[in-house]
Write the C-alpha cells for this entry.
Amino acid sequence: MKSRAVRSSVLRPRKSPALTVVMTLMLIYTLLPLVWLFINSTKSGPALFTTFGLWFGHDFDLWSNIRTVLTMQNGIYLRWFGNTALYAFAGAGGSR
C-alpha cells in the first residue's frame, strides 16, 4: 500500500507557489545581467550613456563593436581569448 502512495507522489508532485515565486525571481536575477549585456553591446559609445539601459539605442552597432574589439591593438583580444582557452583546456585535461 505504501509503494502505491510513493509512486503516486512521484507521478504527481505537489506544487508549491512559494517555490515557484522564488525560482522565478532567481531566473530573473540570473538572466537580467545577460540581457543587459546583449542590449548594451548593440549601442554606440554615446548612446550607451544617453539611452535607457534595458532598451536598444537608435542605431544597431553590434557588428561594428565586435569588429572594434577584435581589431584593437592588432588583435590582442583574440590572443587573450586563445590564452584563456588554452589554460581552461589544459587545466581541465590536467585535472583528470
